[in-house]
């Protein structure tokens, strides 16, 4: 018995050590990643209830020689903790605005662009001035830009974030509350924050077809969104049955593998041409 405990303990420390090593590798490799062009943006279509295009969400991608493909979940927080988020964030904003701006002009189409912004980014002293600078440089239509802010922004940080969000809204830029329902924040956040869109997390959408209470929960979120004059967007829809159910509940916008995986700029162009 004692042996077993000892083994599971050493397994645990082993795992901890490799986790720390991985984190150190990520930090080290990330430092050169932007300059060596290892990062690019993928774009996932967002579809209106009438099946027309609403917009795209920009999602960062990283392929590294040593580490292989590293998903954003595994390196965004490292960037934040090691002071690399400012540079990375600017790359993300710059690249998305340029590529989508070019595509809109080329295809003579106008649609929304959503960019994920972490609270760490939002709190950088010159976040909004820098964003406005890039918007001006790329000549991007501000009103078709949405910033996705994750709901996990805690009540403690609310006081700091609130004036920034109002500033952003003053400039005609839209705000979407990402991963809605997964955090611990209270519903009063909906009254305090200037939110244009509620993004319902995939973890809820996953269960609506076989869990009645989950379906009711999602319906309630959609109704709350409606009552607060916010758009509602369902993330991670993978089949038509989910889409139909969500349409019955009057959800506005849909995003997920059922319509498309995140696409490279070239593949997005093909997707948009098909209409
Ligand atoms: P998120 O914002 O909640 O993004 C949704 C994630 O679900 C994306 O994973 C997307 O590829 C995936 N997804 C979309 N539809 C489906 C579906 O139908 N089925 C399944 N199984 N998955 C689907 P991804 O790209 O790995 O991003 C993970 C998280 O990383 C994002 O969660 C976001 O929090 C963060 N992230 C990604 N790109 C950026 C970025 O440019 N900046 C910041 N700050 N965070 C980012
Ligand atoms: Ca998002
Ligand atoms: Ca999510
Ligand atoms: Ca997220």
UniProtKB/TrEMBL annotation:
<feature type="domain" description="EAL">
    <location>
        <begin position="23"/>
        <end position="275"/>
    </location>
</feature>
<protein>
    <recommendedName>
        <fullName>Diguanylate cyclase</fullName>
    </recommendedName>
</protein>
């Amino acid at each position: 018995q004692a042996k077993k405990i000892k083994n599971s303990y050493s397994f645990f420390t082993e795992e901890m050590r490799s986790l720390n090593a991985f984190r150190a590798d990520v930090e080290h490799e990330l430092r050169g990643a932007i300059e060596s062009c290892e990062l690019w943006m993928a774009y996932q279509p967002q579809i209106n209830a009438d099946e027309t295009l609403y917009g795209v969400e920009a999602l960062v991608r990283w392929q590294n020689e040593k580490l292989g493909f590293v998903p954003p979940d595994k390196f965004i927080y490292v960037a934040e903790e090691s002071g690399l988020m400012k540079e990375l964030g600017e790359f993300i904003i710059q690249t998305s605005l340029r590529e989508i701006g070019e595509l809109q002009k080329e295809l003579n189409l106008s649609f929304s662009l959503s960019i994920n912004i972490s609270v760490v980014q939002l709190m950088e002293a010159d976040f909004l001035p820098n964003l406005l600078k890039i918007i001006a440089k790329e000549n991007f239509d501000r009103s078709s830009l949405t910033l996705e802010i994750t709901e996990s922004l805690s009540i403690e940080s609310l006081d700091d974030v609130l004036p920034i969000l109002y500033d952003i809204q003053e400039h005609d830029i839209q705000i979407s509350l990402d991963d809605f329902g997964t955090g611990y924040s209270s519903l009063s956040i909906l009254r305090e924050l200037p939110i244009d869109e509620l993004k319902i997390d995939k973890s809820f959408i996953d269960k609506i077809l076989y869990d009645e209470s989950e379906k009711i929960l999602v319906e309630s979120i959609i109704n709350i969104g409606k009552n607060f004059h916010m758009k509602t967007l369902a993330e991670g829809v993978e089949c038509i049955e989910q889409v139909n159910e969500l349409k019955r509940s009057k959800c506005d916008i849909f995003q997920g593998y059922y319509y498309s995986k995140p696409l490279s700029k070239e593949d997005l162009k093909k997707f948009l041409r098909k209409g």
